[in-house]
């Protein structure tokens, strides 16, 4: 159980790092849109996902219609739907305010997860929760300043979309863990593959609609390697690391840890995102950003210590199920 706990923690932290790479996407795709990037990324991820189930015959019995439909539904909630709402939030609410609202995800997920599973007494969660809240406020402190508000198109549209993104990701995290708990014999790699394939199929299905709405730049800028080579390289790279790696790691964490702890660990995505943004912008962090990252990390470390002490006290076992 001790080993399982640390595997789950490591997987959740890796998933947070993988998901944080989304913050640097707008800076590497040039004139192509985030929809173009998402198309390449999810199609490549889907192709990788196709290889996993068909590479070993002994796992073919897991590919039932029920499992496939459930995976496609989860892909719609957690990937296509989440992507569309996040992108819309960034367009209408600006690139600063939208991520600030998305910082609510681990807080909401932790509260709901602990309410459902009763992993820890609420008094034990107050301090790490307070640290995470303070850290998020410090990290996103510029969101509602005059400078941050300059990039706002329409708060009336952007904020509801950001809140919808929060709801979709929380829904996905809880539904995904419930689906894994109901399939104890299902290998995490196979379940991850089904979700990846579902995301690729859904993005391909969305392409004609998005192209008719001029959301994709590929038809105008060209599909050839000379024009879109950079998009293909970055899209494939992020597909392997952020999508395939992130989905696989999150499924391991979901199977190994209580939802409340996994949610606390995923908050480190914000810290990784800040660091990545600083690297992309080639600048040093402000004192407030440093303080925010430090407090966030402190909250995550404290959460891990509290859960470890609780779950491995005499007579306790790791709570990894409903």
From TrEMBL:
<feature type="transmembrane region" description="Helical">
    <location>
        <begin position="7"/>
        <end position="29"/>
    </location>
</feature>
<feature type="transmembrane region" description="Helical">
    <location>
        <begin position="90"/>
        <end position="113"/>
    </location>
</feature>
<feature type="transmembrane region" description="Helical">
    <location>
        <begin position="231"/>
        <end position="253"/>
    </location>
</feature>
<keyword id="KW-0812">Transmembrane</keyword>
<keyword id="KW-1133">Transmembrane helix</keyword>
<keyword id="KW-0472">Membrane</keyword>
<feature type="transmembrane region" description="Helical">
    <location>
        <begin position="290"/>
        <end position="308"/>
    </location>
</feature>
<feature type="transmembrane region" description="Helical">
    <location>
        <begin position="155"/>
        <end position="176"/>
    </location>
</feature>
<feature type="transmembrane region" description="Helical">
    <location>
        <begin position="125"/>
        <end position="143"/>
    </location>
</feature>
<feature type="transmembrane region" description="Helical">
    <location>
        <begin position="265"/>
        <end position="284"/>
    </location>
</feature>
<dbReference type="InterPro" id="IPR037185">
    <property type="entry name" value="EmrE-like"/>
</dbReference>
<feature type="transmembrane region" description="Helical">
    <location>
        <begin position="64"/>
        <end position="84"/>
    </location>
</feature>
<feature type="transmembrane region" description="Helical">
    <location>
        <begin position="35"/>
        <end position="52"/>
    </location>
</feature>
<protein>
    <submittedName>
        <fullName>DMT family transporter</fullName>
    </submittedName>
</protein>
<feature type="transmembrane region" description="Helical">
    <location>
        <begin position="188"/>
        <end position="211"/>
    </location>
</feature>
């Amino acid at each position: 159980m001790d080993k399982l706990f640390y595997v789950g923690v490591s997987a959740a932290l890796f998933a947070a790092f993988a998901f944080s790479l989304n913050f640097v996407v707008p800076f590497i795709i040039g004139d192509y849109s985030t929809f173009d990037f998402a198309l390449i990324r999810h199609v490549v991820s889907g192709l990788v996902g196709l290889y996993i189930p068909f590479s070993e015959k002994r796992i073919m019995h897991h590919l039932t219609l029920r499992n496939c439909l459930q995976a496609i539904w989860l892909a719609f909630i957690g990937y296509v739907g989440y992507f569309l709402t996040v992108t819309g939030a960034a367009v209408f609410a600006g690139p600063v305010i939208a991520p600030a609202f998305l910082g609510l995800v681990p807080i909401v997920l932790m509260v709901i997860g602990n309410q459902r599973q009763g992993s820890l007494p609420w008094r034990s969660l107050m301090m790490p929760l307070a640290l995470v809240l303070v850290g998020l406020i410090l990290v996103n402190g510029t969101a509602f300043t005059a400078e941050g508000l300059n990039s706002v198109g329409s708060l009336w549209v952007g904020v509801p979309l950001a809140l919808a993104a929060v709801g979709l990701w929380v829904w996905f995290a809880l539904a995904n863990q419930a689906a894994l708990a109901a399939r104890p014999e299902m290998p995490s790699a196979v379940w991850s593959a089904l979700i990846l394939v579902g995301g690729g199929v859904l993005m391909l299905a969305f392409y004609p609609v998005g192209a008719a709405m001029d959301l994709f730049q590929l038809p105008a800028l060209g599909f050839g390697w000379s024009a879109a080579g950079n998009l293909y390289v970055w899209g494939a790279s992020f597909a392997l690391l952020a999508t395939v790696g992130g989905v696989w790691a999150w499924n391991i964490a979901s199977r190994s840890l209580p939802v409340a702890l996994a949610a606390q660990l995923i908050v480190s995505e914000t810290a990784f995102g800040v660091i990545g943004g600083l690297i992309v912008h080639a600048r040093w962090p402000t004192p407030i950003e440093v303080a925010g990252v430090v407090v966030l990390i402190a909250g995550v470390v404290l959460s891990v210590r509290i859960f470890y002490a609780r779950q491995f006290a005499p007579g306790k076992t790791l709570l990894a199920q409903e």
